[in-house]
Amino acid sequence: MTTSAYRGKNPFEDPLDRILAEIAISVQLPPSLHAKACQRYKTVREYLEGSTEFKDQIEHFYAQGSMAIDATISTRGTDDEYDIDIVAQLGGRYRNMTPLAILHALAAALRDYPVQKIVQQTRCVTLFYADNMHLDVTPALRDYGTTDRQSAITHAKGPLPSNNDCMVSMNAYGHAEWYKAPHTE
Q1: CATH number of the domain within which 131 lies
Q2: Is 79 a catalytic residue?
Q3: Where are the beta strands (DSSP E) in the chain?
Q4: Domain span at 112
Q5: Among 56, 79, 80, 85, the one annotated catalytic
Q6: Model pTM?
Q7: 83 is known as an active-site residue
Q8: How far apart are CA 63 and CA 82, in angstroms?
Q9: Over the stretch 51-82, which tens digit does the pLDDT of each residue have?
Q10: Is 85 tagged catalytic?
């Protein structure tokens, strides 16, 4: 007879819980792909820092969303497409640029990056890899004097400037830190 240190209810005793757990496990980013995703966002940062446009302009480069809280799942509930979200916190010259100009600069700096496709979106630039992983790089400007890297991210549909272009407040870093912190009930 084997004993377990686990003293709570076994979630696999209930058939519905077992099915839900199997689904969750099947769509979760496997460890090998997690390592690949981490390597990719590190490589993208190094690539940008090596460019003239972004040299000494990236203050922080960090995962946001599900990647930041180790809960990345496949995009459509399959095991073949993963969306990794990254924040590129910028400084210096980017503080005086419009949201669309920031997105254009980021897309231009990544233009020759070795991926299948690069798409400038409304709030990020997406790098599509051949293995169906894609990485969204969201440029942000830190709101200095606030907590937890509170920032503003770009929002500009393009391709031409619009009166609707703006910076949108967000705090992906603070949210991830809050989520990972122990909570008491």
Answers
A1: 3.30.460
A2: no
A3: 58-64, 82-90, 117-120, 125-128, 133-142, 151-155, 166-170
A4: 30-180
A5: 85
A6: 0.77
A7: yes
A8: 14
A9: 999 999 999 898 886 665 555 555 544 445 67
A10: yes
